[in-house]
Amino acid sequence: MTNRLIIQKSAADIGVNNACAAIIQGITVSSDLSFLPLLTANLNHVASRLYKLGTNRIYMGFSQQLEKLGYHNTVSANEKILKSFISKGIRPINNIVDAYNAVAIRNGVSIGVHAYNQANDIHVFRSEKPMAFRPLFSKKEVTIPAGDLVYTSGGSPLASIGKIDADAHDFRLTDESSSLLVVVLGHEDTPHAFNQAVIEELVNSLREKMSSLSYHFLERVLVQEVK
User: Fold this and answer.
1) Residues 62, 77: Cα–Cα separation, whole Å
2) Are 30 and 227 in contact (CB under 8 A)?
3) Is residue 1 over pLDDT 60?
């Protein structure tokens, strides 16, 4: 069975119809600082052009997406991480996280990366009812409100966008992870080709240190096409 990225109409209606996802296999998670120079260079490049971000449709589109979800004057995830790195400095996490942060900052997007060893489809939708969710590094579950944007695997949320803007703790990367799922949901101003190029940029970056890795994109299916 080929994994699919199934986008329901509720998500497509707020501009997520161009979402893209891929599975990357053969990765090695470590605490080395291989991608710290790339992350630093990309951060410095963007930080020197902060005055332009207010008119950048890709960067600002995530805040506008939150407004469509009913969250006005809310700081989006891509803006949070950029401002955190600028104000507090870069805090390396591991080689994979550093690599995708570098790519995310350079492109002004949010990227979801999750440990993934399942054969389940990924479903993207606005939650119809409250859902239990344990955010990354949190000790307790919280509740995703109805109407927030989520994507799931096997019925379990991998990430939430809205009141709770976080990845799931249960799908976090560990030193044992060898396969991961990468998701770029994007918004109405990020074409599918752009979202796919962001993932390909991440793959190419990782390949500089992991030449044997492989990857494939999930088939993208709008809900009207699901049989």
Assistant:
1) 8
2) no
3) no
Contacts 24+ apart (CB under 8 A), 47-54: 47/82, 47/86, 50/86, 53/108
Mean confidence (pLDDT) of the chain: 93
Model confidence at 227, pLDDT cuts 50, 70, 90, reads: very low
Q: How far apart are CA 119 and CA 141, in angstroms?
A: 25
Round to the nearest angstrom and report the end-to-end CA distance of the chain: 15
Cα separation, 100 vs 174, in Å, equals 15
Q: Are 153 and 118 in contact (CB under 8 A)?
A: yes
Quickly state the pLDDT bin for 54 (edges 50, 70, 90): confident
227: number of Cβ within 10 Å: 3
Q: Would you state the structure tokens that stand for residue 215, as one six-digit string?
A: 């990857």
